[in-house]
């Protein structure tokens, strides 16, 4: 049976030598595809005091990006990882939430692989999609997720000056059991006891409902984030939050919008340069990473301006990309994706037995809902303008923190009634799917049904558990199986086999079967696709804790070297672009020589980053000095150029 692993407590790196004490506080974490956030309740008596905790760079959200160095010894998370993506594309992992708990052969995974600069491989033991670094080290998506959770946990501990070991983590409402279990695995690896896995739209509704004084009514939460789309219909009354229906698409989000714009940019570049081989471009990791970064920025810009420019100097073989993209063009390109959100909305309304005009508020969640065209489609679908008062990037984490307060007893008089998103059942004779728990059933829930054998003298039965809405199991998803043996020989149809489904508040499924005449029984907790054994999780936690202090020191050194590398690369590129102008200055030879010296110094440090006997600040001082001299060079060259004209 599955059991939540005990958190392994070790001494953390103490800030300013202050002693931290274990806390009963429960943090709320939104582990997002593109960005993640962590929140806590400052004052349990004031629900409006729920607060986002800024990260160590002073930002309220953290990019869900994890990078490993060339030897897989050091880990960068968030903005630090994102900054070095251009020079380390094969070891920088983003959008891994789209892979978590999914089989490698999943058709959506195979589509994603075409767009990713890093390598996705099949784990031979469980056939899950795993990640491979440039040196061939294989990591599970849960392990990458745990790095993000560890970073958020550390930021919370630094902010609160307390040891934190309990959390509520959110997942897309349409995540299946294996994806939920893999998310809990990530929390365990980060040293967190995950008290509850909460659906993201439900968390957003908690945040909205409890921050809107005495709110009662029917709300719809339209959640389009970086990787997934969810729609939930909830009824809020008297502190009771009841999810009436949920629907969605676990592979529809901002990443898909980015992919369309990336392809558009590549097509336009090849159009302008027909001598280039498009396939070579698509397989050039550095080139594609630069286009992805620029395309994502353009997409974000077009949420508040009608026209933007994608400018990438020296994009490929000395050729530049300069492309104007307009809001209406992005709308046209991505309309098939936007249209995909409408059928799930209609299904959720139908399941909830609610007409669009009966919805009192439509809450928008996820960064993609800032796109004007999406807001327009939401208005058309519901017949009313959506509520834009909540921050779509933060409201899920805030709701998770509120649920954490409910579970810890800090918050009273709030009851959350969530639902299971997919129908659950077993395979019966002929490959038929026999449902036991219909979709949108409130959890926790327990249900028992009686089955029998299909063959005379049958001494055992295979219990195969499926999720889905189709009548035949071949069209649904197998999530686990086990065998009940020792049935006495009897004619078919005589043995009474009781099959019980027990779903907890996290949506984790326990299935048991017993034969009534003998009392023989067997059971399973459905973790078949979580991808990691408990032993693997324990080992990863122990290794992370054992090296925590040294990892922190080395991470800071790596970040400093990476930052210097990027600054020097930018300066080198600028020199190349304006060489004809700046070489007229008398300062040019000296600055060029210093630039080469700093580049050599960076190479020296990168060749042995773990050597603590070297002073990494030497690189910082040299880089700062070159930046100052380069500024003087450009000022001098500008004056000479102006004088010459």
TrEMBL record:
SUPFAM superfamilies: Actin-like ATPase domain, Heat shock protein 70kD (HSP70), peptide-binding domain
Entry's Gene Ontology cellular component terms: intracellular organelle lumen; mitochondrion
EC number: 3.6.4.10
Gene Ontology MF annotations: ATP binding; ATP-dependent protein folding chaperone
Cross-referenced InterPro entries: ATPase_NBD (IPR043129), Heat_shock_70_CS (IPR018181), HSP70_peptide-bd_sf (IPR029047), Hsp_70_fam (IPR013126)
Catalysed reactions listed for this entry: ATP + H2O = ADP + phosphate + H(+)
UniProt keyword Nucleotidyltransferase, yes or no: no
Alphabetically ordered keywords of this record: ATP-binding, Chaperone, Nucleotide-binding
Keyword Nucleotide-binding applies: yes
Protein family: Belongs to the heat shock protein 70 family.
UniProt cross-references to NCBIfam families, sorted A to Z: PRK00290.1
Protein name as it appears in the record: non-chaperonin molecular chaperone ATPase
Organism: Lachancea quebecensis
High-level lineage: Eukaryota, Fungi, Dikarya, Ascomycota, Saccharomycotina
């Amino acid at each position: 049976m599955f059991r939540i692993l005990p958190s392994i407590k070790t001494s953390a790196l103490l800030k300013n030598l202050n002693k931290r004490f274990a806390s009963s506080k429960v943090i709320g974490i939104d582990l997002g595809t593109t960005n993640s956030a962590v929140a806590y309740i400052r004052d349990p008596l004031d629900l409006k005091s729920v607060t986002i905790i800024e990260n160590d760079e002073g930002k309220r959200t953290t990019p869900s990006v994890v990078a490993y160095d060339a030897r897989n010894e050091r880990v960068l998370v968030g903005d630090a990882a994102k900054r070095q993506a251009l020079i380390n594309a094969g070891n920088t992992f983003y959008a891994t939430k789209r892979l978590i708990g999914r089989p490698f052969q999943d058709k959506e995974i195979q589509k994603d692989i075409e767009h990713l600069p890093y390598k996705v491989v099949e784990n031979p033991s469980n056939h899950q999609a795993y990640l491979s670094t440039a040196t061939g080290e294989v990591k599970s998506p849960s392990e990458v997720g745990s790095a993000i959770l560890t970073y958020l946990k550390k930021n919370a501990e630094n902010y609160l000056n307390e040891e934190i070991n309990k959390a509520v983590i959110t997942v897309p409402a349409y995540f299946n059991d294996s994806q939920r279990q893999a998310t809990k695995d990530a929390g365990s690896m980060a040293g967190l006891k995950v008290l509850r896995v909460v659906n993201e739209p439900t968390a957003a509704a908690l945040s909205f409902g409890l921050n809107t004084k005495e709110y009662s009514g029917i709300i719809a939460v339209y959640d389009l984030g970086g990787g997934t789309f969810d729609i939930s219909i909830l009824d809020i009354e008297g502190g009771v939050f009841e999810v009436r229906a949920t629907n969605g698409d676990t592979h529809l989000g901002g990443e898909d919008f980015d992919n369309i714009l990336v392809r558009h940019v590549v097509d336009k570049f090849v159009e302008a340069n027909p001598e280039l081989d498009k396939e070579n471009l698509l397989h050039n990791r550095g080139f594609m990473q630069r286009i992805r970064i620029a395309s994502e920025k353009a997409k974000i810009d077009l949420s508040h301006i009608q026209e933007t420019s994608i400018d990438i100097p020296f994009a490929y073989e000395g050729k530049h990309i300069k492309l104007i993209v307009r809001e209406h063009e992005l709308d046209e390109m991505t309309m098939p994706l936007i249209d995909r959100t409408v059928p799930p909305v209609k299904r959720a309304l139908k399941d909830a037995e609610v007409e669009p005009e009966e919805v009192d508020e439509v809450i928008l969640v996820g960064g993609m809902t800032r796109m004007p065209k999406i807001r327009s489609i939401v208005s058309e679908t519901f017949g009313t303008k959506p509520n834009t008062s909540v921050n779509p990037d933060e409201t899920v984490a805030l709701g998770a923190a509120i649920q954490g307060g409910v579970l810890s007893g800090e918050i009273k008089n709030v009851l959350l009634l969530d639902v299971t998103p997919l129908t659950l059942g077993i395979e019966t004779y002929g490959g038929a799917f026999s449902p036991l728990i219909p979709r949108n059933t409130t959890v926790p829930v327990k249900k028992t049904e009686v089955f029998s054998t299909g063959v005379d003298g049958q001494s055992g039965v295979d219990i195969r558990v499926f999720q889905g809405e189709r009548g035949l199991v071949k069209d649904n998803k197998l999530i686990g199986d086990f065998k009940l043996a020792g049935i006495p020989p009897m004619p078919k149809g005589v043995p009474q086999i009781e099959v019980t489904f027990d779903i907890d508040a996290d949506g984790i499924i326990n299935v048991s079967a017993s034969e009534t005449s003998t009392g023989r029984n067997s059971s399973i907790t459905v973790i078949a696709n979580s991808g990691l054994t408990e032993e693997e999780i324990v080992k990863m936690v122990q290794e992370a804790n054992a090296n925590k202090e040294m990892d922190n020191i080395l991470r800071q050194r790596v970040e400093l070297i990476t930052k210097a590398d990027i600054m020097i690369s930018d300066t080198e590129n600028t020199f190349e672009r304006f060489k004809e102008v700046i070489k007229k200055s008398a300062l040019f030879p000296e600055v060029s020589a210093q630039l080469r010296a700093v580049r050599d110094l960076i190479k020296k440090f990168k060749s042995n980053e773990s050597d603590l006997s070297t002073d990494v600040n030497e690189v910082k001082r040299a880089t700062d000095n070159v930046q100052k001299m380069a500024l003087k060079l450009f000022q001098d060259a500008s004056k000479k150029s102006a004088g010459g004209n």
